[in-house]
Amino acid sequence: MPRIKPGDKAPDFSADSINKGKLHLNEFKGNTILLNFSRYFGCPVCQLEFDELRELTKKHSDLKVIYVNQSHPESAKKFIEGKNVDFPIITSQKTNGKYELYDLYGVGDLGVNSLIGILQKAKRAKSLGKEHGPYEGKETQSPAQFLIDEDGIVFYLNYGLFNLESLEQVLKTRAFT
């Protein structure tokens, strides 16, 4: 599975979201997009990162977000219930032994730095009352984030844990409000 690089055209896809219907990436052209890959909503670190993502969307209301994870649709619906989530959530299920959307973007297994980061973030998540729910998806799955410009070109990517400060800095550098 080839990895995406800055300057690459973002691979187009269509998928059903659990809360916004069917979507096509190319429908978002003309906007700055954050395509965020996570593991599953039962993961306390993923729950913490979801909160951080929602914080980012409040500061950058023009940023279009597409959130992808491996939770079962029913679990994802339950998790977002009452949270007023205004961006689409795609629950990428395993098909023919693969998580196709993850593979399309070259999002593979966790690296050593991500494993260390998960342990550190897990302590913070626990201190905030995040609890582990059902295991869904691939436990060793890496998260990843892709910022895509108005023309569909990836200008920032991170194969690893969600880093709110890095994303804010990149958006600030691009004079995105």
Keywords:
alpha/beta; Glutaredoxin; five-stranded mixed sheet; two-stranded antiparallel sheet; 17% strand; globular
Give the topology, please.
Elements: E1 14-16, E2 22-24, E3 33-37, H1 44-59, E4 64-69, H2 73-80, E5 89-91, H3 100-104, H4 112-127, E6 144-148, E7 154-158, H5 164-173
Parallel strand pairs: 3-4, 4-5
Antiparallel strand pairs: 1-2, 3-6, 6-7
Helix pairs in contact: 1-4
In a few lines, what is going on in this structure?
By secondary structure, the protein is of the alpha/beta class. The protein contains 5 helices and 7 strands.
Overall description:
The chain has one domain: Glutaredoxin (3-Layer(aba) Sandwich), CATH 3.40.30.10. The chain is 31% helix and 17% strand. The protein has helices spanning 44-59, 73-80, 100-104, 112-127, 164-173, and strands at residues 14-16, 22-24, 33-37, 64-69, 89-91, 144-148, 154-158. The strands form two sheets. The chain has a five-stranded mixed sheet, with no helix packed on it. It has a two-stranded antiparallel ribbon with strand order 1-2. Strand 3 (33-37), helix 1 and strand 4 (64-69) form a beta-alpha-beta unit. The model has no long low-confidence stretch (mean pLDDT 92).
